[in-house]
Structure formats: structure tokens, C-alpha cells
Amino acid sequence: MLELESGYTDGDIDTNPTYNLSLNELVEARYSRRDTLKSGVSAAAIAVFGGAVLAACDDNGSDGDGNSAPVVTAGSSGSSSSGRLVTLTSTVTDDGGIVTSAWTQVSGPTVSLTNANTPTATFTAPAVSAATPLVFRYVATDQSGLQASAETTVNVTPAALGFTAVAKNKNDVVTVPTGYSVSILTRLGDPIAQSTAAYKNDGTDTDFANRIGDHGDALYYYGLNADGARDDNSNIRGLLAQNHENLNVQYLHANGPTNVSAGPRPEAEAIKEIEAHGVSVVEVVQGSAGWAYVQNSTFNRRITPNTPVEIRGPARGNALLVTAYSTDATAGRGTINNCANGHTPWATLLTCEENWAGYFRRPRAADDARRTAKELTALIRYGVTSTNGNYAWASVTPANASSTIFRKWDAQATGSSASADYRNEPNQYGWVVEIDPYDKTKAPRKRTALGRMNHEGCWPGPFVAGRKPAFYMGDDAQNEYLYKFVSATPWVAADANAADRLAIGDKYLDTGTLYVARFNADGSGEWLPLVFGQGNVTSTNATYAFADQADVVTHARIAADVQGATRMDRPEWTAVNPVNGEMYLTLTNNSSRTAANADPANPRSYQDPPSTSRGNRNGHILRLRETGDTTEATSFTWDIYVFAAGSDLDATNINLSGLTADNDHSSPDGLWFGRPSNASGQVNPLLWIQTDDGAFTDVTNNQMLAAFPGRVGDGGTRTVTNTAADGTTSTVVTRIGAAPGTNLRRFLVGPIECEITGVDSTPDGRTLFVGIQHPGEGGTPAAPTSKWPDSQGGSTSLPATTRPRSGVVVIRKNDGGIVGL
């Protein structure tokens, strides 16, 4: 038996020898618990719910020994909107000490409560289509087993833009709304291998096969779990895949490039430029200090114009793709001028080759005589007509005489056959390329069934089990077309989780039907098949005698010509509303659009000062709805969601969408809807619009806007009057969406001379990744016109020769909510 000692003190004179706590200890324990329970009441909670409290009823009375039940409050009822962070706050008073307490949800759409076992819990308001009450209960139990509770109601309204419009500006920083923060994630030249040296950014750096490339464009985030496996729900670790479209070549070399126009080019300069193109895949993680990339990750990878690739689909093995490198036309090297992108539900990247034709040397004065009439039709239609190539890479004399990495850029027919030279090398570019971002051992695959063009993007429509999936593609050049590829294979949902992801790509992307769009004046449209033997796509066509389906997809532009597709104002990115399946297409601008050739889908030709020329200088965004809301449809309806313009332009014939200082813009380019895994991509998804503009840059740097865009047909018809240079007028009746008003708002303005391009988020929508391309593109090594990203910190003491770099920024809402809402 344990004996307890008793003794006299000046303080506590009770000497009862038991295990009971002393009076002082009881008081201390009670107030310690009470302080803990009362802590954490936030200003955010008060702002949402006000200062009043809702008192709980004491349902339990007492325990018969005089102990009273706790008194619980759960705050007053309040309201919020979808996607915003909501804080629940309770208080408890009790004489007996609280043992347990917790928040639970009583009714309404189910949400995930954070810190539910504390007095202050949070949740993200769910997506709703109408005002919806959510009821929550807070329950506390004391040491005597007595319990009390209180309830509060949160009324959630549909999603709304949750920020004040950013003003137009020409600052050398990324400007975002109040309540948001910006940080730099990756930049041109950042090393992605452990042994690669830090980037000096003085033009002396090498080894770009192990660095982030230049002109970062479209990007996509692929989740990773703690074990390094694919996890589509991971918000703190993933892979960021980004295209690298082109170069600010003047900043890559110490004193600018040597003989860049005609050559001969130094080998070291040319290899640096080549490797700075392509695609990067890097691991990114969120830690206590924010987001960062992992330099030594085993996932990190560069795909450059020298990376081996496979040719798949109808053109595989065809004579049109035979080269000295691949005499059986089944393989090639690399990808270039990668612009917009797409993704698949089996977690692969679709990167798209855009302005590839200009990289090749083919002086017509020498080469035309070596070509057939049919070859010349194709080469001229695709623009393979450069005397030296964009960077004169074919002029390099390599130290290794057997190397052909420079020779392949010479597209002249100089050998005895196609297998002896690189006359067909241009036919190996202009495709959609599929990459498995999780497996660097797998060679990328060029999906020739999707056609060859200036591929701006390849965005998927909804994947529905048992239905053939579709992919929407713009051809980025003036007066080119909108395309759709429909797989021959109906979707099987289990394929989304297959281990061999590129094999699933073989299943859905190598066989199917390629279509091109024709837009009718009455708001209807047709998908015209580009299939050998159908319509005008035949071996007897007078313009171009097609030989087979490989010939059709390799020369998809010519097939679209003969089928009678609608010529558009530079079709760029496509994006598909994840809820209703409607497709959006940016038509960036068109300097050759005239009053005489304006049509209902491209209805404006005007003068926008200070320019003295006429055309569609500011661009517009078109949208379409498939008949029957199915990807397999061969017809659709369409209208124009928004006409880009300055708010000061004529509202009758130019600023048709009534844009204001809060949302006027020019040359829409990038497009992206919020992910369906969070409220920004549910019910009424949020649309992000990015600009690549030269017409509005006297007023502002390029920008990104957020919008709730409505639906096809929510407006009506409008008659546009266009005036030609000689003063004559003509009219066009077009289909216009409802005026966007405050549902379109400027969210971001970039640094000097940049393009805003590339956007994606983590699955929860709380982290947004945005690409900043070619800041300071008009400068020189001696006099850069931008110092971004070094200027992002606001320093005014940067050296005058600080070179700008393309990069990716991370944008987060300071309260942790969903970006934009």
C-alpha cells in the first residue's frame, strides 16, 4: 500500500491524503482548457459571420451533483460563395472541464472540414448552382459526461469573381490583385540535373539539354504521391511539363548570336539554341517556404529537337516521312516550336508543334527544279521556303563529321533519293506529340492521325464511357482552320489508370477521323471529314492528287482547302468547358481580314489607331456546341463569346462586347478552364484568357483575365458594318454572346514585352501556375528592355545589363482559397 506523506505549509492547508487535485490545480486545469478552446478565433471568421453569436441550448441541465453542462456557441449564421474559404468559430464555457469537442456537418453538400476537432474549423465552400444552406453543429463534452451543442448555417451562393480588377500598366513585374501573392518557380537556364552548374545569365552558359528551355509556353501539372507514383489528387508534389517555343536568341550568347541570318554559325551557339527548344518536365514541391522545383529529381527531363521519337498512326512507314536518319519512316528526332498543349485522362502530355516550317533551309532558286509539281504545291502551302532557316543551323560544320543534327535542317533534295538526304525532314514536324511525363525511358510518339499543320493545341472534349473521344485543334496562321479528331475507339474508363500510358495513346490516337470546321451564317456548322476518298479528298483532285490517308494527314491543310473549310482569324488555343462540353477557340488577330472577305464567324475589319491598316487587329473568342452534346457529332452551333477591343473603340462595330477599362484586351491567345476537381471547374467553370498582343501594348503589357463565360446562344445576332480603305462599306450579320460585363475581369498584367502563356493549377485550385514568355524581347545584351524576373522583388538597384528570362510564376490567394473565386 502506497503511503502518502502529510505536512504543513503556509499555502494549501488541506492535508487529505488522496489522489484528488488540489483546488488550485483544478482552477488551473479548468482555465487552461477554456483558454485552449477559446483560442484561434480569426478575423476572417468575424468577417464572414459577423460579431454576433448563436447561444446553444443547455439540453443536459446538470448531472445531479450540481455540475452544469457546458455552454456552447457556434457563431452567427452567414454567407459565402463557391470556392471561398469559410471559417467556423465556436466558444465553450464550462465548470467541469471539456474532454472532447468537434464540428460536424448536419446538412447540405458534403465538405471537408479542416481542424474539425478544434473550436475554429475551415472548409472551402462547394460549387452550387443556386443559394444553398449548409448547417454545421459544434458539440462539447465535459469530464462529467455532460454535453451541449450549437448549430450555425452558412448560405453558399454560386461562384463569383473574388477580386478587384487589376489596372492596365506597363510595369516590369507580374501584377496581381490585392489579396494575392506571386513567387518565381522556374526560369530559363535553371539546372535540372545535379551536376549542372547554376545559371550565370551572362551568355556563357552551356548544357541546355539539362536546363529549363527558353520561351516557356503551355504547361500542365501532373501529381505525385509521397512514394513518387502518379497521384491525380496531389496538391503539394507533382511534375510540371512545359513547352519551350522559341528563343530570345540575343540573350543566350555573350554578345548576341554570330551570323544568325545566313551563317556560317558556330557549332557551340547552334547546339545551345537547338537544346533550348522543346519540352521540360521537372518535379515541383510545396514546402514551408512555398513552391520550388527539385534540381536533382530522377523525374526531371528535357525533350529537345535531338531527342529520338517514334512515328505512329497513318503516316508511319510512309514514303513521305523517309529520311537518311529513318529510311523506313518509323522514327525521327525531336520536337520544335512547341506552343499550346493538351492532356489525356491516362495522364500523358500532348505537346504541339507550331511554327516549325521556318527552321528549315530550302532556297527555292536551287531546290524547286529538283522537286515534282506535287511536292512544290505541298512545300509552298506549308511555307517551307526559307533561304537559310530561322537560325541558319544547317550552315554549321560540325566537329564530328558524321553528325547529322545540323544537316537535318537542310530540306533540299540533294541526294539520289529521300533516304540519302533530308528533303522529307519537314514532314516529320507539325504533329501532335504524346509524352509520358512519369517515364523518361519512353520515347515521345508523334500522332500523325491528328494531322500536320501549325498545331497550336490539342484539347480533349469530355471523355464519356462508350463514346468516342474528340480532340480540338487550331492551326495558328492567318486564314487557317479549326480541326477536330474523333478516335475510332469508344472510351473505356478503366484505361485512365493503365500502367502503359503510351500504349493507351496508341489505342485512342492512332486511328480515327480528322475533321475540319465550316461555319455557316445561320449559326450552324459542319465537321467536314478529311478522309481519303471522301468528298474532294481523292486521287483525281485537280489541286492536289492525294495518294492515301498518310498523304491526307501529312497535307491536312490542303485537304481542308479542297473540302471548303472556313478560313479563320488565326485559330490558336482551344479549351473545353468541363461541365457542358462547349469548345472555345481564340482567334488572335488577322491583318488580312478585309471588308470584302469578312464572314459571320470572322466579321470585323476595321482601323485601330495608331495603326493605319485595316483588319481584325484585336481578335475574338469563338465557341461552339456540338449537336446532341456529343463528341461524335458532325454538326454544331456557334457564336462569338467576346470581341477583344479597347474600351475606347466604336461600340457599334468594333467594341461589340461592351468592354470597359476593367476587362478590355487585345489578341486573346491562351485559354484554360479551371480543373473539375475543385469549385473553379464545377457547375459554372472559370475561364482564364491570356493575351499575346502588339496592338494594345501602347496602353498595357500583356495580361490574363478571368471570366464566367455563359453558354452558346445566350446573346443574339448583330449586324457589323465594315469600312474599306476606299470608304466603301459592307455589312455582316454575326452571332454574338451576351455582354460579359463584370463576369470578365483583368486578373494579371505581366512584365515589359512579355507574352502571358501557359496556365494550370493544382487539383484543389489553390495554386495557379502561369507562364511568362520572352520579357524584354526587344532589347539587346547591352541594353535589355526588361529585367524580369529579377525585377519582381521591386529592386531599383539591378545592374543595367541584367538579362530577362522567361519563367513560371506561382500565384496563391493569401487566405488559402481557390484562385480567382
UniProtKB/TrEMBL annotation:
<feature type="compositionally biased region" description="Polar residues">
    <location>
        <begin position="788"/>
        <end position="804"/>
    </location>
</feature>
<feature type="compositionally biased region" description="Polar residues">
    <location>
        <begin position="604"/>
        <end position="616"/>
    </location>
</feature>
<feature type="region of interest" description="Disordered">
    <location>
        <begin position="593"/>
        <end position="621"/>
    </location>
</feature>
<protein>
    <submittedName>
        <fullName>Phosphatase</fullName>
    </submittedName>
</protein>
<dbReference type="InterPro" id="IPR013783">
    <property type="entry name" value="Ig-like_fold"/>
</dbReference>
<dbReference type="Pfam" id="PF22352">
    <property type="entry name" value="K319L-like_PKD"/>
</dbReference>
<feature type="region of interest" description="Disordered">
    <location>
        <begin position="774"/>
        <end position="804"/>
    </location>
</feature>
<dbReference type="Pfam" id="PF05787">
    <property type="entry name" value="PhoX"/>
</dbReference>
<dbReference type="InterPro" id="IPR008557">
    <property type="entry name" value="PhoX"/>
</dbReference>
